UniProtKB/TrEMBL annotation:
It comes from Metabacillus sediminilitoris. This is Undecaprenyl/decaprenyl-phosphate alpha-N-acetylglucosaminyl 1-phosphate transferase. It holds the Pfam family Glycos_transf_4. Mg(2+) binds at N152, D212. One of its GO terms (molecular function) is phosphotransferase activity, for other substituted phosphate groups. The keyword Membrane applies. Its cofactor is Mg(2+). One of its GO terms (cellular component) is plasma membrane.
Length: 361
């Protein structure tokens, strides 16, 4: 259950973020934190960046008010500060992927070696406990870096990355309320409030962009919070919870990597074939595209919640169904170019079952 203090924390974070954003816009323009349009960007005019600073200010105010106690709070905040600095430098000077990755790795190492990781998993049906050992560090580091970048990669339309982050965090909030995880509830409530305070300035037509300052910071926070939500031990299927809640950025990133491999391009190569690009190419407006992706994200978030309420077989069915659904969606709108393996198989199966015409007719 959310306490009255957490509600006040939400209101405070929302208010600080909302009020501070106009000042961040002026700061960004004055010191040159501006996004210049190019061939792969949707906007036509230069826009202020570093909108993430407003979210950070709101979150900081909420944390100072609630003072949520947790053993790992200091290293988590230190890692967040490193990510924030990396984002600011990148928004100003366009860091190479190598340096951005190095900063993310340092932040992840600080958090993971402080103890934020999953130590063991429990095998369904048998109840057997498997210690992850050194792999607990590797899995947590990869997860933090992957989600940090996944949120950044979908930051291509006004309000998209911030909105999807708020939706994913809302799913995590519901799950943490169900499990009574007060620290996760407090941090999640604060972040949602901060994002919602920023969105009025970021939704189309945006007055300011989230920038890497905000997208990387939100990705990092969501990655760490999802690990804290799982805590020290989980069943194998429980590992699917954060993946389902974050399905949109995760699958979009996976298909982007696959697309570039199939096209024999570098994984870091930018293109205009992400989910939002494809929906725009299909004729949907800017706002309609964002709302469609919001709806997809909310559907997956709801699925993550239902995932925890069903039997083991029901949970497995949800995972399989969602994977097939997203694969079909990806092939229909061209997320992996002209490669359509699943649709090809389904087409062949359908044709093979078509009854033959009577030869006498």
């Amino acid at each position: 259950m959310i306490t009255i203090y957490q509600i006040f924390g939400f209101i405070l974070a929302f208010t600080v973020s909302l009020v501070s954003t106009p000042f961040v816009i002026k700061f960004a323009k004055r010191f040159g934190f501006v996004d210049i349009p190019n061939y792969r960007k949707v906007h036509k005019d230069p826009k202020p960046l570093i909108g993430g600073l407003s979210i950070v200010l709101g979150a900081t105010a909420g944390i100072l008010y609630l003072k949520p106690f947790y053993n790992y709070l200091v290293p988590v905040m230190l890692g967040g500060f490193i990510i924030l600095v990396i984002g600011l430098i990148d928004d100003k000077y366009n860091l190479t992927p190598k340096w951005k990755m190095l900063g993310q790795l340092i932040a992840a190492l600080i958090v993971v070696f402080s103890g934020v990781k999953i130590n063991f998993i429990i095998i369904p049906f048998t109840g057997e406990r498997i210690e992850l050992g050194i792999f607990s560090y590797i899995i947590a580091i990869i997860w933090i870096i992957a989600i940090t970048n996944a949120i950044n990669l979908i930051d291509g339309l006004d309000g998209l990355s911030a909105g999807i982050s708020a939706i994913a965090l809302s799913s995590i909030l519901v799950l943490s309320i169900m499990n009574g995880q007060m620290f996760v509830i407090s941090i999640t409530v604060i972040l949602i409030g901060s994002i919602l305070g920023f969105l009025p300035y970021n939704f189309h037509p945006a007055k300011i962009f989230l920038g890497d300052t905000g997208a990387l910071f939100l990705g990092y926070c969501i990655a760490v919070i999802s690990i804290l939500g799982l805590y020290k031990s989980v069943t194998i299927f429980s590992l699917g919870l954060p993946i389902i809640a974050l399905a949109v950025p995760i699958f979009d990133t996976m298909f982007a990597i696959l697309r570039r491999i199939l096209n024999k391009q570098k994984i870091s190569t930018a293109d205009k074939a992400h989910l939002h690009h494809r929906l725009l190419a299909m004729g949907y407006s800017h706002r309609a595209t964002v709302m469609i992706i919001y709806a997809i994200g909310a559907s997956f978030g709801l699925s993550a919640i239902l995932f925890t309420r069903g039997t083991l077989w029901f949970s497995l069915l949800i995972i399989v169904a969602l994977c097939i659904l997203f694969q079909v969606l990806a092939e229909l709108i061209g997320l992996i170019g002209n490669h359509k393996p699943l649709l090809t198989v389904l087409s062949k199966l359908t044709n093979s079952r078509t009854p033959l015409k009577d030869k006498n007719n």
